[in-house]
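Work through this protein:
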Amino acid sequence: MSRLKVCVALLAAFVLAVVCQPMAHAGAVAYFLDGTTMNYFTPSGNTALPGGWTNNGFVGAGDGNAYFLDGTTMNYFTPSGNTALPGGWNNNGFVGAGDGTAYMLDGVNMYHFTPSGLATNLGGSFTNNGFVGAGDGTAYFLDGATMWHFTSTGKTQVPGGFVNNGFVGAGDGTAYILDGTAVRHLTPSGLTTIPFFGVGPGNNNGFVGAGDGTAFILDGTTMYHLTPSGATALPGGWVNNGFVGAGFVPEPSSVVLLGLGLAGLVGCVRRKRQS
């Protein structure tokens, strides 16, 4: 490969790293309703957004934006303000899908919301016994003992009958449910029972998705890290006074690209001076 091609490839890596770096921190934002005032938070501070609001449902969209039900009016919030979406809505279950969209159970009907205002009626006659966003634009919904996997175009039943003693989205299109005292890993095509080799969760004292396809559950005072293939007990004894998943940030890849691009550019400049 010629020196020119090498330099072009390294320059591309540098540009990609610069672009990816802010994207790695795109999730470091939040919306907060203070009384009737909506605030947009970043690590550097907050901005008060116009309007006075009443909270009847509030979910993050997973892309730096949010959906907010004010009375019966659905609003889509961005850092610059809000857009009122068509329709009047009643919240019987509301989750962000992780891709900029959301799902809501309005009465007994399921709807999929997009930023453009399109609310697709996914039909059904549902009762909410558990509802989580899966992080990839889909959601899992427990109707009685029947589990459904929802997409923007419809639903698929996940085999089995379930009792919800804890239910979290895993962030990668899957979810975990504590079904009685057994932990199941749910996928669009079915489920897997997580092996604990005779020990493990029987009690849910805290349960969160980690955003990378795994989850953490506190059983009594023992913390377990759940993966699709098994569970690992973590050292220590714990009392839950607050528990949240912090999400998964693919930071190292962008740093590697940035370093590779800078090193390559320095090398190309040196070669050019020597020639």
User: Anything to note?
Assistant: The longest strand covers residues 154-161. Residues 170 and 213 are 5 Å apart (CA to CA).
